[in-house]
Each structure stands twice: as structure tokens, then as C-alpha cells.
Amino acid sequence: MDKKQIFIGMLFSSFFGGLVAIGGYSLLQEPSDNLIQTEQNDNLKFTNYSIDTTQAIVPAGLNFVYAANTVTPAVVHIRTTVEASGGYTSRTPLDSWLRDYFGDQGRPQGRGGMGAGSGVIISEDGYIVTNNHVVDNASEIQVLLNDNRTFEAEIVGVDPTTDLAVLKIDEANLPTLAFGNSDRVQIGEWVLAVGNPFEFRSTVTAGIVSAKARNIGILRNRNNLQIESFIQTDAAVNPGNSGGALVNLRGELVGINTAIATPTGTFAGYSFAVPTSLVEKVVEDLIEFGVVQRALLGISIRDVNSELSEREDLGVVFGVYVASVNDGSAADDAGLESGDVIVAINGREVKSVSQLQEQIAINRPGDKVLVDYIRDGKRRNVEATLKNTLGTTEVVEARNSVLIEGATFDEISNELKEDLNLEGGVSVIELEGGKFSDAGIKEGFVITHIDKAPVATVEGLTTMLGRLRRGDGILIEGVYPNGDKAYYGIGW
Q1: Based on the domain organization, do 319 and 350 belong to the same domain?
Q2: Which of 29, 221, 342, 361 would suit a FRET pair with 489, their CA atoms being 20 to 30 Å apart?
Q3: Least-confidence region, from 115-124, 139-148, 285-294, 459-468
Q4: In terms of DSSP bridges, do strands 485-491 and 473-479 run parallel, antiparallel, or are they unpaired?
Q5: Residue 394 placed within a domain
Q6: Is 263 helix (H, G, I), strand (E, B) or coil?
Q7: Are 242 and 351 in a shared domain?
Q8: pLDDT at site 60
Q9: What is the pLDDT of residues 382-436, one digit of tens each?
Q10: Which CATH number characterizes residue 231's domain?
């Protein structure tokens, strides 16, 4: 065989072997090629690709959809109209900031204005809870439901000391929110804030509970009866959210959103809600009586800290220090003394003034509470029967007259307030001898100040007088219906 034939044979063999190799490789690799291609397609998606959220896997307890759907229909938008007046009235030193924050943009004197906020439907027949400052001084109130229906609302009652108010609209079969137990809310727990910020209706934001029983010093009361025991969260709350719902992931109401901590007037990280432990009690009182049945121990208090503990040799660095006890108060009757440290109410530990105020405020006058306290290094307890601001255990009416030292007092009418340009005052409607008569006070006199502290209500008057001790001297300032101002000194 010559060289030419050998070369052709080798070339043919190589060609045939190549075909066999290629064919065999393709046959063996076809399934793998398809698998690789499928994996690549699963990992590459168009930017408009969307998943079916009903099939999404959410960790247990972190699905906000149920709570949002449950809450939104029961949260309403509130619009208020405030008539023009000759002056600018306020109930707190922060009133102008509250008005700016919640939509009533700093009305100049003599001009009317509009306000906005949120509210929560709590009964099928139209009772709505919101913040007092949302409806404060409102002449007209409109409630816009989630289904776009609009109703005129009336004020059932307000409580500036907790910044809560109850409204009523004339409708039935409304969606409602159930009250949850704010005492069981834990720090770190997820919550939702639902309201109408910046007129954006039905807005839901999420956050966690950052703290409880928080006192931020935003509420003020002439008689120092304000209660601040806020739930603090980092759920975004902005102007218009005020009065809206704070709920847990079961869709239960655990608070009413009220305020934010901010240097700018808009959300900066923390929001604050009145806990439902207070809300539920205040709402029940306002609906049943038109006024809150405020229960008091009758003590002056402050938080215990290391400095106070060391100075007074208390032996503890937590609890509530009793600075003084009012004569004839619930605490006085129970035997509590100045220097005692209260550490629990009805078995619930209290480490701060805010916690103590909340645990007392959820009761009514006449209720008995078990007070645990420390005296001389020993833990003791005593039962105290709480009293109202008038110093009794009776139900307080929405409008009260009270007899003190021979003088009968009542709150002045709105007409007299306007005539005398007063925010409030207490009128002497009858005199039958006694200290006030002896001082020269005549019937019709309107008390506006005691020792330069303003007096606006009968409740405020009795609270101030209740703190006096025998032998104290006071200066009473006021005005007669004809506009004549007068001052009287009284020895108590």
C-alpha cells in the first residue's frame, strides 16, 4: 500500500471518529443542556415581574394585612370649623403648637379656622373616640367615613386631662374596632398606626412599641390633674393622625395616637398614644355621665431616683415618693404619710408617677384599691377608698354646684364668659355666712384666681381649696358681672 492510500485511510478514520464522538456527546448532554437553560430562565426576570402575594410566605405574627383590613373601615377623618372670636383661647401652654401640628394653622386673632384629625368608631350606633385637641373650640364637626359618607357630629364629652373626646353621629350598623388590652402590650411588639395624615385618608404605618408609661410633658392642667402614660412607638405619625388608631396585629385597639416628639412639627422618629386602659374608662364615663369620674388618692408625688433615695434614706431607687398627703383625702383616711414610697397598686408594680396615675385613673370614686408602699425600709399595704375632686365618693355631674364654707359655687355660663372675656371661672351663687361672706365677697362674684393660680371650674376650685391646711392664708381674685374687679384675703 502506497503512502497516498495510507493518508486517505487515516483521514477517513479521523473524520468518521469525529462524527461518532460529536453524535455521542450530543446524545449524552441533551438533558443537561435543558436543565441548565431552565435554571437560567428562573433566575432572570423582567423588571415588571410581580409575584402572587397570596402565595407569599410571611413569618408567623408579621403579616400586617389582616390588621390593616380590619382597622381601616373603622377609622374616620374629622374636619372641624372654629368660629372667629375676639381672642385666642387656649387650654395648655402648648396649645399654639398643638394647633399648628394638628392642622389648625395658628389662627390670627379675630379669624376663624379649619382643623383636621382622625377618629375611631367604637360602637355600631355611631360613638367615636378622638383627641380633645382635635375638636377643641369647634363650632362644626364633620366625620368622613372610609366609604366616603359624611355626617355631622356632636360632642358627647371631652377630657382635657387625658386629651380624649367622644363624638356621636346618627347612623347604625357601622364598622367598629374592639378594645384590646394595652396592659399586655410589650416593648418590641409590632403595632400599626392608622389615620389621615396630611389629608391622605386611611394611611397605615407600622412600627414597634418603644416604651410604655411615657410622660412627655405635653398636657397641662390648671389643677395639675393631667395624666400622661403614653405608649411610645416608632410608627410614623404626622399632622392629621391625631385621634387615630394604634392597633396590635390582631386588629385590636391598644391606643389613640396623640402626639409626636419633633423639632420640626412632622414625624422625626417617635409617636405617642393614650393607652386603651385609660381610653376605655374615659369613654365609658363620658357616654354615661358626660364628664369623667376622676378618682384621686389625694397626694403630691414624684419619681424616686438615686439622689432622692440617698437624701431621704428610702432604701429603694424605684417607686413613687409621697411628698405630701392632703387632709381628708383617700390617702389620709388610709393612713399613708409623707415619705412613703408607693411600689404597687392592686398588685401591679408602679415604678414611676405615670404608672401610678394610670393605675389610679382607671378607677372611679368609691372604688377601693390596695396600695403597697415602703416605710422605714419595710414593705406594707393598705386599702384606700378613692375620692373625687370634690372630696367625696359620689358621682360627679357634668355641671356641679358645691357648698364650701357657707358659699355655694357654680361654673359660669358661656354667655358670661364672653361678656367678661374669660376662659372660665366659678361664680358665688349663694352665701349663708362663713369665711367667704366674712371676707366681704358678695353673691355673683366670679372667682378667677386663687393665689394667682387660675380657676376655671368647680373641680379646679375644690382641688385648690382641698390642698389648703388650716391656718393658711389665700388671696382670691375675681370680677363681678358688671366688670368690677376685686381682691379678697381669706384665712383658712
Answers
A1: yes
A2: 221
A3: 459-468
A4: antiparallel
A5: no
A6: coil
A7: no
A8: 59
A9: 999 999 887 888 887 766 667 788 888 888 888 888 889 988 899 999 888 888 9
A10: 2.40.10.120
Do residue 183 and residue 88 come from a single domain? Answer: yes
Domain match, 65 and 42 both: no
Whether residue 75 is found in the same domain as residue 199: yes
Structural domain count, the chain? 4
Average pLDDT, the chain: 82
Contacts of 411 (CB under 8 A, 6+ apart): 399, 400, 424, 425, 426, 427, 457, 458
What is residue 18's three-state secondary structure?
Answer: helix
Residues 6+ apart with CB under 8 A from 372: 342, 343, 344, 345, 347, 379, 380, 381
Checking if the pLDDT of 301 tops 60, the result is yes
Q: Which of 7-21, 354-368, 468-482 has the highest mean pLDDT?
A: 354-368
Model pTM score? 0.72
DSSP at 54: G
Query: Which residues are known to be catalytic?
Result: 133, 163, 242
**374 and 415 assigned to the same domain:** no
> How far apart (Å, rounded) are the C-alpha atoms in residues 489 and 492?
10
Which of the four pLDDT bands, split at 50, 70 and 90, describes residue 95? very low
Give the structural domain span for 152: 59-290
Q: Cα angle vertex 387, ends 381, 393, to 5°?
A: 120
Average pLDDT over residues 74-100: 60
Task: Tell me what percent of the residues of the chain surpass a pLDDT of 90.
Answer: 55
Do residues 186 and 208 make contact, with C-beta atoms less than 8 angstroms apart? no
Residues 12, 102, single domain; the answer is no
Do 167 and 156 touch, CB atoms closer than 8 A? yes
For helices 353-361 and 276-289, the axis angle rounded to 10 degrees is 40
Residue indicated by cell numbers 396590635: 248
**Mean pLDDT (whole number) for 52-78:** 76
Half-sphere exposure of 440 (CA within 13 A, CB side): 9
The SS3 of residue 2 is coil
Q: Are 104 and 113 in contact (CB under 8 A)?
A: yes
On whether both 245 and 371 belong to a single domain, the answer is no
Measured distance CA(84)–CA(64) in Å, rounded: 43
**Contact, 304 vs 320, CB < 8 A?**
yes
Q: How far apart are CA 300 and CA 175, in angstroms?
A: 43
Closest CA to 380 of 351, 332, 340: 340
What pLDDT was estimated at residue 280? Answer: 97
- pLDDT of 51 above 50: no
Which amino acid belongs to residue 17? G
